[in-house]
Write a structure and sequence with these properties.
CATH class: Alpha Beta
Largest sheet: 3 strands, parallel
Number of domains: 1
Structural class: alpha/beta
Helix content: 40-55%
CATH architecture: 3-Layer(aba) Sandwich
Order of helices and strands: HEEHEHHHEHEHEE
Shape: globular
Strand content: 15-25%
CATH superfamily: P-loop containing nucleotide triphosphate hydrolases
CATH topology: Rossmann fold
Number of strands: 7
């Protein structure tokens, strides 16, 4: 689902339109550019590079897209502060807890100021207390910054914290719920 919705895979039927752009109609280079500038990704297992520090992991997408190093560092540090990890900026992933690693991943997903953030089981590898803290962070970013998150989860408690739930089975929408937000 996330691969198709984010333009990583083309849909077998229909189309994916984000902000008026038919993502499926873009060529590969345009899709890559669109994802790099308009989307953020949060993964269950973080996908952080172990040899890089937290700030280096966060600034990496900016450097790849051509942002000047000093500006990339400034933006990365601002995102780490936003997720409460500025004091951990020079630590490598192996020196961080699971919750801290996930917050680095969230900072990296937000560093390019995306329109939408795709989150694949963002709390799946965390204990319940840390999962709640991560969801508090995402809810706060949604509420205070208007950041849009699409979260894939098998956890009912996590889904219950979202504004809208789309239940799927075997690749098809089974039902939708609109929750009070």
């Amino acid at each position: 689902l996330l691969n198709t919705a984010s333009g990583l895979d083309d849909p077998t039927e229909g189309s994916v339109t984000i902000e008026g752009t038919d993502v499926g109609s873009l060529d590969d280079n345009a899709k890559t550019s669109y994802r790099a500038t308009r989307m953020g990704f949060i993964f269950q297992f973080y996908n952080l590079l172990p040899v890089l520090t937290a700030v280096e992991n966060v600034e990496l997408p900016l450097l790849v897209s051509g942002t000047r190093p000093a500006e990339a560092r400034r933006l990365a540090l601002a995102q780490l502060e936003r997720v409460g990890l500025s004091e951990w900026a020079t630590h490598r992933p192996g020196q961080l807890s699971g919750g801290q690693r996930q917050r680095v991943t969230i900072a990296r997903a937000l560093v390019n100021d995306p329109t939408i953030v795709w989150a694949d089981e963002p709390t799946g590898d965390l204990d319940s207390v840390t999962a709640g803290q991560v969801m508090d962070l995402l809810a706060g970013l949604n509420r205070e910054q208007g950041q849009t998150f699409v979260i894939v989860t098998h956890g009912r408690e996590i889904a219950g914290r979202c504004h809208r739930i789309v239940h799927m089975r075997d690749g098809r929408i089974e039902r939708e719920e609109q929750l009070a937000g």
